[in-house]
Amino acid sequence: MVSGGGKEPLEKAMASDWAETIDRFQQAAVDSRLGIPLAYGIDAVHGNNRFYGATIFPHNIGLGATGDADLAQRIGAAVALEVRASGIHFNFAPCVAVCRDPRWGRCYESFSEDTNIVRKMTSIITGLQGQPPVGHSKGYPFVAGRYNVIACAKHFVGDGGTEKGINEGNTISSYDELESIHMAPYLDCLYKGVSTVMASYSSWNGCKLHAHHFLLTEILKGKLGFKGFLISDWKALDRLSEPRGSNYRRCVYTAINAGIDMVMVPYRYKQFIEDLISLVESGEIQMTRIDDAVERILRVKFVAGLFEYPFSDRSLLDTIGCKLHRELAREAVRKSLVLLKNGKNPGKPFLPLEKNAERVLIAGTHANNLGYQCGGWTRYWQGSSGRITTGTTILDAFREVMGEKTEVIYEKYPSPNTLSGQNFSFAIVGVGEEPYAESAGDNSELVIPLNGSELISTIADRIPTLVILISGRPLVIEPWLLEKMDALVAAWLPGTEGRGITDVVFGDYEFEGRLPMTWFRTTEELPINKGDNSCDPLFPLGFGLTYKKENLQSK
């Protein structure tokens, strides 16, 4: 079973509410004729993000900026605990897409445009599932125990390479390019014992992946030796025909014979069952194909210990949003921050800021909006605005750390009187993208939304300004605007722990983040990646300044 992007069991549902609901489903399963337990799945892609009060970690693009494989593994372990606390066994993560174009609406779900960085960050699987023992067979699923979850490497394959970054679009490439750029991270996932793989909505050279026998069966299951199960994406079979959902029997035939073992069918399950039985009885789907799928699914359920421990462990409830996990998320935030500019003149850095400044202005659409700070896949599929969960906004964080005598003035859109009538030591301007997920995030313009550029310009004309950009990808920064800023930090989608930002901008910690994506100058250049002959970016892949005045790119 799976929870999609719809309603929770209750508004502001707690983990205990979920556990009670899922345990009822599980009881019905184990009381059935065969007694086979359910593997209940959820998209916990940056924490157990559907839960009110859960720890929300930076999205993958921020983790890619850290380049810290050990950190990713520790985050995986924390997420696994918070997921298992709710009675859920199966996490549809991580996304190991290699995003080659920031116009893609799922860019933030990718660790990087660089295959090597994505491969490095597959360590999160070891956190989620546990460390396989020495000699573990490559491709065989592994789950260490009751404090771990079934992980899912997604979306196989090429989802980050579609033409013009269109979600669910078409990746045009040779097989060698597909293998070296997009498939390579899956090799690392298989070595780490990833239990499941999810097929991509997208196509490769015009053929949809859910219908691609060569890639799903001959390559993934055959050449690469994957022994776990291959799951479809949400309603993916409907997408195999035009108009969507038409000729459903043919869609079932195509996907199952291509190699899909488990199918996400949220609504048409009765028709799916009828069509599948009919196809088997007619011989259009061989019983050996059904046996193979069942064997793979049962293998994962046995490996995950579901037959021994099918129900939730209520002793884990205290891990949801616990201090230890929030400190880990805070560490991830500070390590993910990329310093793109520090001072208008060489030798005169603007950061670190002074905690005991006399008067400070904090402004912008993202300075006090936890939902914007977390991004999509937070409480809801598309995310939302405001105090949608528990956490610390940028404004909260600054108020916590500024000196007792410092006057902190917050206005989302400062009035002319505010800007002209007071002597501010500096301004903090938080701007960026509104939350989005999947196709809703496809964007060919990539300007700073909500008049962000105008707001920065208005404030920076009058007050020395640090801009904190909250976004799931690089955005257009015009040269004239960059010139006006005194400092610029790319904070990505940091999640609930805003104190990670103040830890660094006040100098308590060093900037460590490096760009996981090439920062383009104009959208006309896209796609632009390291190694392109015409590559002349605003900031190259790997760029990041430090207080030590060295560019991290050379490290």
From TrEMBL:
Which keywords does the record carry? Glycosidase, Hydrolase
- Could you name the domain of life of the organism this protein comes from? Eukaryota
Provide a GO biological process annotation.
glucan catabolic process
Q: Which InterPro entries match?
A: Cellulose_Degrad_GH3, GH, Glyco_hydro_3_C, Glyco_hydro_3_C_sf, Glyco_hydro_3_N, Glyco_hydro_3_N_sf
GO MF annotations, alphabetized: beta-glucosidase activity
Domain (Glycoside hydrolase family 3 N-terminal): give its ranges.
19-300
> Per the database record, which ranges form the Glycoside hydrolase family 3 C-terminal domain?
337-547
Q: Name one Pfam family in it.
A: Glyco_hydro_3
Record flagged with keyword Hydrolase: yes
**UniProt keyword annotation of Hydrolase present:** yes
Kindly provide the name given to this protein in its UniProt entry: Beta-glucosidase
